[in-house]
Design brief:
Elements lengths: L1 H32 L2 H21 L3 H8 L6 H13 L2 H13 L1 H8 L11 H21 L5 H23 L5 H27 L11 H32 L3 H13 L4 H19 L3 H27 L2 H8 L8 H16 L3 H6 L4 H26 L1 H27 L6 H17 L8 H23 L3 H10 L4
Helix pairs in contact: 1-8, 1-11, 1-12, 2-7, 2-10, 2-11, 3-7, 3-10, 7-9, 8-9, 10-17, 10-18, 11-15, 12-13, 13-15, 13-19, 13-20, 14-20, 15-18, 17-18, 19-20
Length: 486
């Protein structure tokens, strides 16, 4: 776990810094500097681009992770990497031509409820290409166990640029419309930076030769395209469907809630930057023992860290929204609570998704992802019309819980491994007990003072209990290093 913990620690710092910058953007700059409709518009464009991203790059970002370690010579590895650049063009070029021909029909359909979207629909395709190739080049560096720089560019660069652009809108250097185009340019620059770094790390020889196992690669990629698109649907379909059923400003309210709740998932995002490649290597070598060790360690460690974030966020949520000082955005308070519970469930799954994708049973991931996508669409259609944006959050929670349990059972049946232990029960009991005890306990000072006081009390109590109950050896070492608890 040495390289995992080291790079995960650095990536976690990067993610927290990026999240802090993004938090300032989402909760204060976007809400105060940009018109709500344009806030909803940029959220819609980026979310829709994320949904079609796997199709445009033909799932190559996942194919790289799974197969790179199976090639033993540099010539084979270089040929494989070069092919991952050109294969997506077989999708992008014809799909781009068809989209251009049908543009008016597509634009009219997606903007049926909100006409503002129509003139910007073409940007979805462009941003998706930028995002897709960024992930491809990022995967080049991940297979070399070098995830930090890419994580920095992904999490901090774009957000810092967004901050500058929002201030430019505030000072009237940019209009709301120009801001949308400027964000697209930022994503293009981000991809170019990642490409340059990927070539620096890998230094591939330009070999225009298809890998010997090209049929296997294409078969895997086809499944991953659908699975990846389905995963994108699960993550982003809410922000696509809300404008089809509600005013586009509701996307802005929903996005703030989603962003706050996503802090709970920071630990798993940090750890996955490195554990995915290691899991793929262990699965390729059929080293199930090591896979199980990482499965269990990541599950409990992520639950411990994510549990603390869950408590700090949800026990301070009322004060946080008061600090934002935009009453209409408080519509998203329940979104925060519901989505953060779903994130806890994902944390408990540890490296489970990586195990499924990189095992010989990877096809089941396709079927599960497809079922999840269909389920969340159906539930969104029903629940959004019933209870608005809270319904969309509830749809996500239901789908995550049901299908995560199914995946845990499936891995147990096929590989005879599972992530839980008595420690898992302990940590869930601690989280539930503290949440229940402090949820209705509020101070009457300034929101910042309230949040600081409650965070200190909850944080210290939580760490003491984690230490005393000996829930995680890894976390115990970290706590002991910085706190002396007798």
């Amino acid at each position: 776990m040495g390289i995992v913990l080291r790079q995960s620690f650095i990536n976690t710092i990067i993610l927290f810094v990026g999240f802090a910058i993004g938090g300032i953007n989402v909760m204060f700059l976007f809400t105060h500097f940009l018109h709500e409709d344009y806030f909803g518009l940029i959220t819609f464009l980026l979310s829709t681009a994320n949904i079609i991203l796997p199709l445009l790059v033909f799932g190559m970002q996942h194919t790289i992770i799974k197969y790179y370690s199976s090639y033993k010579t540099k010539i084979e590895q270089d040929g494989f990497l070069i092919s991952t650049i050109f294969i997506p063009l077989l999708v992008i070029i014809p799909l781009g031509l068809v989209s251009a021909y049908l543009y008016e029909t597509i634009a009219t359909w997606v903007s049926s409820e909100n006409p503002l979207i129509k003139n910007y629909t073409w940007l979805i395709f462009l941003v998706a290409i930028f995002m897709g190739y960024f992930e491809v080049f990022y995967s080049w560096t991940k297979v070399k166990y070098n995830s930090v720089f890419g994580n920095f560019v992904k999490e901090i660069f774009a957000r810092v640029c967004t901050s500058f652009l929002l201030f430019a809108v505030y000072f009237e250097w940019l209009t709301n419309e120009q801001f949308i185009y400027a964000i697209v340019i930022v994503y293009g620059i981000r991809t170019l930076i990642m490409k340059i770094y990927a070539f620096y790390i890998c230094k591939p020889t330009l070999i225009f030769k298809l890998p010997s196992n090209i049929k296997e690669l294409l078969s895997f990629s086809l499944y991953i395209i659908v699975a990846g698109s389905a995963a994108g649907v699960l993550l982003e379909i809410d922000k696509f469907m809300i404008p089809q059923m509600e005013q586009i400003a509701q996307v802005a309210y929903y996005s703030v809630g989603i962003y706050i709740a996503s802090a709970v998932a920071i630990p798993t995002r940090a750890m996955q930057q490195i554990t995915t490649s290691i899991t793929a290597k262990d699965m390729n070598e059929n080293n199930i023992g090591e896979v199980e060790i990482m499965y269990k360690q990541t599950s409990i460690n992520l639950l411990v860290i994510g549990g603390l974030l869950f408590l700090l966020i949800n026990l301070n949520i009322a004060d946080l929204y008061e600090l934002i000082n935009k009453p209409q955005f408080t519509n998203g308070i329940w979104v925060v609570i519901i989505i953060s519970v779903s994130k806890l469930m994902e944390l408990a799954f540890g490296t489970g998704n990586s195990i499924l994708v990189n095992s010989k049973f990877y096809k089941i991931f396709f079927y599960i992802s497809l079922a999840m996508a269909i389920s969340v669409i159906v539930l969104n259609k029903w629940l959004i019309s019933l209870i608005g944006i809270n319904g969309s959050a509830l749809a996500t929670l239901i789908v995550v819980i049901v299908f995560t349990i199914f995946k845990i059972i499936y891995i147990k049946m096929k590989l005879k491994i599972q992530p839980f232990s008595i420690q898992s029960i302990k940590i869930m009991a601690v989280i539930l007990a503290i949440f229940t005890a402090f949820y209705f306990w509020n101070f009457s000072f300034h929101p910042i003072v309230n949040m600081v006081l409650k965070s200190i009390i909850v944080g210290v109590l939580y760490l003491v209990l984690i230490k005393k109950l000996q829930i995680s050896k890894d976390i115990d070492v970290l706590v002991s290093k910085y706190l002396t608890l007798k």
